[in-house]
Amino acid sequence: MTEFLQHLVNGLSVGTIYALIALGYTMVYGVLKLINFAHGDVYMVGAFAGLYISRGLGVDQEPSLAKAGVVFIGAIVICAALGVAIERFAYRPLRQRARLTALITAIGVSFLLEYGFQLPPVIDGEVPFPPGPTPRFFPEPFARVDFEPFGVHISNYDIVSLVVAVGFMLALQYIVYRTKFGTAMRAVSFDASVAGLMGINVNRVIVWTFALGSGLAAAAAILVAGSRPSINPLLGLLPGIKAFVAAVFGGIGNVQGAMVGGLILGLSEEYVAGYLLSSYRDGIAFALLIIVLLWRPEGLFGRVRAEKV
Amino acid sequence: MDLPKIILRSAVPLLIGIPILWIFQGAVGGPGGTETAMAVILMMAGINVILAVSLNVVNGFTGQFSIGHAGFMAVGAYTAAKITVATNSLEIVGIPTAVSDQLIFLFAMVAGMAMAALMGLLVGMPSLRLRGDYLAIVTLGFNEIIRVLIENTEFLGQATGISGLPKRTNILWVGIAVIVTIAMAKRLLGSTHGRALLAIREDEVAAEAMGVDTTGYKVRAFVISSAFAGLAGALLVHQIQLCTPRSFTFIKSIEVVVMVVLGGMGSVTGSVVAALVLSFALEGLRDVQQYRMVMYSVLLIALMLTRPTGIFGTREIWDMIPKLRKKVSS
């Protein structure tokens, strides 16, 4: 029983992270019909942005809650700006072109971030920029406290991470379904050209969608870096792909779907790896993906849309 | 065209190619692992040509986007490696050792192709029913699953892989494989099958409305493409004499995608030229390894922004030079 609960805790904490990243994929796919392959790398940039800010603030010498807040908000702002820049310079010029073109560009952007961050340093410092392939240590923003209710190991990081992630998801839910911007976003997602004719500024909606999605990725990165402090330029690769799988799972373009997909993926990975095949953890996501796509090609919450010629 | 004529036409490139390759082999590569650096580069370039041309069958002709080519390479490579390692000390009775070794290698390559084709069928059947970008993510997932499986299978040597492979790949084998691959692509493009693939690329819904069995054609193209990826894998591991999962990562798949995109989606000669140029360029860039992938990605983005269909587009080299064009088409 204890083991079961422990896996539940771990699965939830991984799952909410996948869900946060998956939200970025699903929103971008919703408005642009583009798999933003670079999203996982935006997540990685978020972790490094957090690292540089905490170095600047001296978090490792004297951690405090206020500093943790600054690191968190700062990383989100930097990544939101990065997301907007990627959209502006790489995706917008290709918006009218074939979707394949945009997909290949997205892969290009992803590789540029991954390998750009591994180049020899240009700006020297304690942690140079670019940071290079060596793993870096992310300083703990506040003291770790462990609890053991019913023999289940939980730290205050797990709790903060869960609360913050759920808070962000609820906020996003509110934005998408209760605000004017959310209505515009759903309209663009439904049909961008008609939404444009109805007086919606499509470009602005897309820019804000990228900003929101990338900000959420940065938030996820900081939450993860708190508990798994070793970061390197390739750390976005696997979580990125898995979060995409989670988004496809829930029906890509569907906000609740991405959350549920992320949680299902996190929990199933944790349980399968915990009870059956621990070394196959990284393969589980893809096996699940293939099964779900065969059974429901539109994902769990997706709607079937007829293809127009 | 009747059958003897078809057979004759298919054999012509090999009849011309083999003697030339033989001379080449003598010039740059001695027997038994004493080949020059030039020979190694040539073989790598040849393997890249096979990969690019075969991926072009799916990505270029059919317009589907597969990014798991390295997964099929791995299947072919491991199959062939297991066979050659297991039969290393064996020889077919009554034939000289050198010849029997080559025959076993040929068998291993064919087995690798068959296994990769089978895997292509298994992956392609379900995933090619999906539309659009999903194939990309499924093939990527397949690539990862293969890697995870290999790393967890003792029989395949886990992360360390299989070492001590006999050195069987030489210029002649690579050259023959290149000729066969290019001939396959060219003849496929000119066939009914190829026309159906092009129709699917241009407009899948319309092709289906015209009575083209889109899924069937896509699956067959995918299977052919995977088989040749398996062949390239088999050649690669018998060149470097080591078979590890590290040779077949997502990055390798992307390298091949870059070749196809650079050369032009749908242009056979474009793929060949791009594969050769990139192979030789990378050889020159060996001193600045860490910039290599950055250059790849910048190249990819710049190319997509300026020439979304690649340098050659869907045209072949001779389409660009009017005089040559007449000769080829007549």
Structure characterization notes:
Chain B: It comes from Pendulispora rubella. The complex is a heterodimer of chains A (309) and B (330). Chain A is 68% helix and 3% strand. In chain A, helix 1 (2-32) packs across helix 9 (237-249), helix 1 runs antiparallel to helix 10 and helix 2 (39-57) packs antiparallel against helix 3 (65-91). Chain A has helices at 2-32, 39-57, 65-91, 99-116, 156-178, 180-190, 192-197, 202-227, 237-249, 255-275, 281-295, and strands at 136-137, 146-147, 154-155, 230-231. Chain A is mostly helical and 309 residues long. Chain A has a two-stranded antiparallel sheet. Chain A has eleven helices and four strands. Chain A starts with a helix and ends in a 14-residue tail after the last helix. Chain B has 14 helices and two strands, in the order H-H-H-H-H-E-H-H-H-H-E-H-H-H-H-H. In chain B, helix 3 runs parallel beside helix 5 (134-151). The two termini of chain B are 16 Å apart. Chains A and B meet through helix 4, helix 9 and helix 11 of A and helix 5, helix 8, helix 10 and helix 12 of B.
